[in-house]
């Protein structure tokens, strides 16, 4: 039995984690003493987050199973029972790290003496010389924005845990992220309130250079907040796919951030992208630790909590960092999966409780799962299905009378299996990672090269990042 | 079967709640349109919070039982199984209400146009005339403080739910509130950082009028944060007592706040006490709804989540409102219960898993529970116990050899039963409410009348409320 299946760390693991955590603590101690390089501190915190999450997931496994937080892995020959909702562990570690990071990001640059009760009588402002270009401390007024992001993440974690525990119906649970987004939108409203968007050049003669969306900007933000977590939750069901896709998106977002930080001049959006990095680095830390345990063959399940949490991290950085359109460009596979699922989501085609690929015990491979038609579909739906079949976007099976008796479930995972044939679970997950990376690189290319065609300025210059 | 035992609302309840919620919504709609009376909005929100919590607790009961969140009420003849952890429902409603309240409390008084990415190029400040004295909108710079309070509460709710689910050992769980307090302390550090305390007059010749506690001020705040939630969790175990004591403390804190708001001049601590009211009013709303279901005979249990949550609400208002000493004066029964428990907590006297009063099925009354001494106590402990017995602070039983064979468990509930004799569960809970009220009124008297003797100024005037 390998060390990974027991609930204690092997000697090698223990030492690796201790060395990692120790090195990161050393970096942290220096970064708080010195001139202040919050980005370095953030990297160190991410290392600690990785080590803590890795250990906690291992130790808490049996505790979770005892508490009834467990599930059967149906895509394994023996249907082993493994701990569920481990995303909650990730999320809690992540939140604590982001909280501990506050003093590193927000240096106390206003020393205030008060007469008590919070009314500041004497305010002494201390102006610090900016130490570096990209590694400078964060503007203090962004504290509320940072805290609102944290609040939204905590909200979604609480509601996600509730969902994992209480098994809420999907019609209700699609709205959970909307509740999670409320703190962010509220603080955006009282503290920031920018609702202008840059108008693409072709439309400028009609509506001007800027358009104030007003209330609809909030509707747009709420829609993004509902979409991202749910779309990650939708592209799920095989070992490692939830965490792996989230990691790819996070890394690509970080690449995007880096593009703003390595410009020769100090880019006006530097702060937004530092903000984004501070949220993404620890996310990569905790998610990698989870992936070690969730990759095929899984030792733990991540739970809806993780999908909501990961999606909300992206929403927070996208909205508070003002690059939600760029964010959506990294969600191309999720958007496709959502659009492709619509016929089943809205019950035009029967939707079974689970649509994940079917495990074939003899070969050990996954095959596309199907919906059986007890009564044949209406002519309209039948035609549509046959069209999909002809374009290889679904697979249908007919009986002797030419009536459709079953059709493949409309998810990107099943589609991939139709295209590529049955494959093992980890190869399917790897394929999804490859698709996510390809689509994401294409998205960034669109963002940084093609957007010039419709937007007035270089998108890495002054005006392109308001929305 | 009365309506209250089923899981749906009776017609009378439905209509009452709808009328209440409707009226409150009406008030809210007006208060956002008009000049802005956040205190009125807060009261309206509390009404809504009551209605929502009341309904949710009723509806979610069977869902919680199905999810395994249930417990047996051992102090009833038939040991009925009822839903557990209902405090989590309270807490979630409370948090959402406090989030929705943000725009009401923090009016957008800075309209900023940005060039995107969050850097404000043009800042237009709009100065509003203050509409009322006590009902004025909240200073905008307090937003971070409000958000940090919310973060701490969310933290403790997440950890509390974890505790209720995973059954953490008490040695570990006493530290849960410390983690919950971290966001508040972090933001206090970067945003506020006042660590001066007013020195009592008799000591002023030696240390001056103010003393900067520096790091120790944070230790003090963390200690308060650990004490309050745990002490409420300690005075628990009979129907209704957790919620009832929390309600008494909340109402007395609100009385204290009112004393600052009704002064003829505008008190400098007005903001702190408005802040406190904004946190306490919805707390009273959700807790009252819970008490309806948790009072004898209980339909639901509150769970550790509620105790932590309630304690942390008090910590947040006490620390961020700068009246943590006053807060502790309202915790006299809890402080007594804690000190009285120390011998058992530190295992000088054996400590059984549960120390709650024992239910006597024939009479239906509660009696003081006891610890049995398998081996007689050491002479020192025996002497101490006999002293306690003589002063009627415990009850011991001896065998023929004069050795102690059992002693009562050292909790305030058992002590009350020793003093007053066996009584029904609700009478015991009512007694505790009476004790809490008496001690609290005494505490407020000490605060507002006796503190003048050792503090330099009228405590309701300029300097008395820094700590």
How would you sum up the major sheet of chain A?
A: 3 strands, antiparallel
Name the quaternary structure: homodimer
SS-derived structural category of chain A: mainly alpha
Query: Mean of residue pLDDT of chain A?
Result: 85
Strand proportion of chain A, as a percent range, falls in 5-15%
Sum up the overall morphology of chain A in one term. Answer: globular
Identify low-pLDDT runs of chain A: 1-5, 108-136, 458-467
GO molecular function (chains A, B): transferase activity
Protein name (chains A, B): UDP-N-acetylglucosamine--dolichyl-phosphate N-acetylglucosaminephosphotransferase
Transmembrane segments (chains A, B): 39-60, 81-106, 143-162, 174-195, 215-236, 243-262, 274-293, 305-323, 428-455
Subcellular location (chains A, B): Endoplasmic reticulum membrane
Supply database-style keywords.
2 domains, 11 strands, GPT (chains A, B), UDP-N-acetylglucosamine--dolichyl-phosphate N-acetylglucosaminephosphotransferase (chains A, B), three-stranded antiparallel beta sheet, mainly alpha, globular, homodimer, metal-binding (chains A, B), 467 residues
Polypeptide structure, described:
- In chain A, helix 5 (143-166) runs antiparallel to helix 12.
- Mean pLDDT of chain A is 85; it is low at 1-5, 108-136 and 458-467.
- Chain A is globular.
- Chain A is mainly α and 467 residues long.
- The first copy, chain A, is built from 17 helices and 11 strands.
- The termini of chain A are far apart.
- In chain A, strands 9-11-10 form a 3-stranded antiparallel sheet, with helices on one face. Chain A has a two-stranded antiparallel ribbon with strand order 1-2.
- Chain A folds into 2 domains: 11-330, no CATH class; 347-423, no CATH class.
- In chain A, strand 3 and strand 4 form a beta hairpin.
- At the A-B interface, helix 2, helix 3, strand 3, helix 5 and helix 7 of A face helix 2, helix 3, strand 3, helix 5 and helix 7 of B.
């Amino acid at each position: 039995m390998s060390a990974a299946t027991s609930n204690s760390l092997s000697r090698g693991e223990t030492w690796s984690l201790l060395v990692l955590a120790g090195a990161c603590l050393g970096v942290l101690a220096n970064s708080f003493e010195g001139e202040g390089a919050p980005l370095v501190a953030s990297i160190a915190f991410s290392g600690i987050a990785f080590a803590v999450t890795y250990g906690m997931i291992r130790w808490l496994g049996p505790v979770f199973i005892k508490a009834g937080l467990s599930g059967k892995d149906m895509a394994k020959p023996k249907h082993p029972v493994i701990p569920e909702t481990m995303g909650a562990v990730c999320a809690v570690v992540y939140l604590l790290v982001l909280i501990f990071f506050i003093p590193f990001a927000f240096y106390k640059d206003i020393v205030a003496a008060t007469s008590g009760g919070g009314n500041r009588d004497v305010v002494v402002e201390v102006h610090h010389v900016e130490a570096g270009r990209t590694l400078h401390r964060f503007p203090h007024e962004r504290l509320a924005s940072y805290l609102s992001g944290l609040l939204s993440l905590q909200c979604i974690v609480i509601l996600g845990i509730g969902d994992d525990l209480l098994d809420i119906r999907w019609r209700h649970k699609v709205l959970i992220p909307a509740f999670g987004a409320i703190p962010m939108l509220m603080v955006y409203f009282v503290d920031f309130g920018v609702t202008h968007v840059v108008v693409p050049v072709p439309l400028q003669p009609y509506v001007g250079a800027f358009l104030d969306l007003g209330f609809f900007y909030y509707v747009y933000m709420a829609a993004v907040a509902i979409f991202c977590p749910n779309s990650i939750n939708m592209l799920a069901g095989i070992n490692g796919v939830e965490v792996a896709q989230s990691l790819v998106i996070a890394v690509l977002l970080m690449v995007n951030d880096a593009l703003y930080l390595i410009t020769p001049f100090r880019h006006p959006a530097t702060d937004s992208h530092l903000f984004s990095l501070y949220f993404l680095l620890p996310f990569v830390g905790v998610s990698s630790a989870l992936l070690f345990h969730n990759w095929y063959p899984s030792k733990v399940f991540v739970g809806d909590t993780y999908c909501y949490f990961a999606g909300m991290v992206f929403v927070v950085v996208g909205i508070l960092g003002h690059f939600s359109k760029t964010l959506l460009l990294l969600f191309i596979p999720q958007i496709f999966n959502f659009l492709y699922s619509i016929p089943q989501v809205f019950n035009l085609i029967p939707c079974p409780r689970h649509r994940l690929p079917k495990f074939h015990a003899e070969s050990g491979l996954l095959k596309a799962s199907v919906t059986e038609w007890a009564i044949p579909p209406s002519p309209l739906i039948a035609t549509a299905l046959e069209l999909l079949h002809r374009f290889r976007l679904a697979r249908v099976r007919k009986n002797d009378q030419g009536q459709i008796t079953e059709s493949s479930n409309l998810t990107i995972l099943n589609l991939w299996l139709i295209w590529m044939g049955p494959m093992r679970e980890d190869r399917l997950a790897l394929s999804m990672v490859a698709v996510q990376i390809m689509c994401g690189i294409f998205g960034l290319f669109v963002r940084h090269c093609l957007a010039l065609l419709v937007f007035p300025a270089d998108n890495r210059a002054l005006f392109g990042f308001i929305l």
